[in-house]
Amino acid sequence: MEFSNSLIQWYLQNKRDLPWRNTTNPYHIWLSEIMLQQTRVAQGLPYFLSFTEAFPTVFDLANADEEQVLKLWQGLGYYSRARNLHATAKHIAYEINGEFPSNYKGLLKLKGVGEYTAAAIASFSFEEPVAVLDGNVFRVLSRYFNVESDISFPKTKTEFQLLAQELLDKKNPALFNQAIMEFGALQCVPKNPNCEVCVLNSSCAGLQHKKVNELPVKTKKTKVTPRYLNYLIIKDSDSNFIVQKREGKGIWENLYEFPVLETESQLSVNEIIEQVSKMEFFNLQPIEVISLHNDVKLHKLSHQHLNIRFFEVHFASKLPDSKPITEIEKLPFPIVIHNFIVANYCNSL
């Protein structure tokens, strides 16, 4: 009880004023929770405001075109979240009359809603006494109780879930859940937390055992795969461009990109130009290949490191299906390609 009371008192004095905390509307809370998965609040907040302005209700989001949704999401990453968000909005609007499920079990059935998100919506919107468990909560609990179980393993999640549920203030589940997550985000931070000013320092077992910076324990490392993407900026005689939608499973599904030549390793500029010149598409007519950037742009995803270069290919004639920059700028692109377009082909995008 001391842990919960101290945590809540700290929260009431230190919490950030965030728009999704001033409502019990499950639509807004759902939006915020999906956006904040793998995303810092400072990055997610502008997107939340843009979405709620463009789509004030779940019906507005359901009726939107997917490209509009992806364009607004552009730069937030993990684009499957946006596609799931759109699909779930359609399900809620068209199949259950715009009403969100009002309990944890019902929320879990929604596409893109996992255990943490379901617990957050259930407690914040409907005051259901179910504890949330995210990275912040893992960190706070492991340090305070000196739990050395490896959070890489599923059984550890069950251990922490039971502990969080036991500590939960059943009369104020929303307040407690917000408090422990905020405490992890602002006070009990991953690296070098300021334990001297922590309200829990007198009873924190991790601090007493001088193990704060070693907890939580996580031994399993994410395997990162390198990929080499050489984008071809195909430009015709009218200064129009060829772009294509990225289809199939994998990164950036349903986003747009320039035609791409993927290689197994980093090739020299001359080797790339030689390969481009041999591609069937380019054998149709004379071309000029220009290397726009000899440097490689490294774009880091959770499981992949993308080594990206851009090559401009000039055609002497007009190409079918080419688009002017004014049309291209309306399409959703991966942020690394979006930034390249902004820097090289238009004043604003």
From TrEMBL:
Binds 1 [4Fe-4S] cluster. Residues 35-186 form the HhH-GPD domain. Its cofactor is [4Fe-4S] cluster. Gene3D superfamilies: Helix-hairpin-Helix base-excision DNA repair enzymes (C-terminal), Hypothetical protein, domain 2, Nucleoside Triphosphate Pyrophosphohydrolase. Keywords: 4Fe-4S, DNA damage, DNA repair, Glycosidase, Hydrolase, Iron, Iron-sulfur, Metal-binding. InterPro entries: A/G_AdeGlyc_MutY, DNA_glycosylase, HhH-GPD_domain, HhH_base_excis_C, HhH_motif, MIG/MutY, MutY_C, NUDIX_hydrolase-like_dom_sf. It comes from the Bacteria. Signal peptide: none annotated. It catalyses: Hydrolyzes free adenine bases from 7,8-dihydro-8-oxoguanine:adenine mismatched double-stranded DNA, leaving an apurinic site. It is an enzyme of class 3 (hydrolase). Its EC number is 3.2.2.31. Transmembrane segments: none annotated. NCBIfam families: mutY. This is Adenine DNA glycosylase. It comes from Flavobacterium proteolyticum.
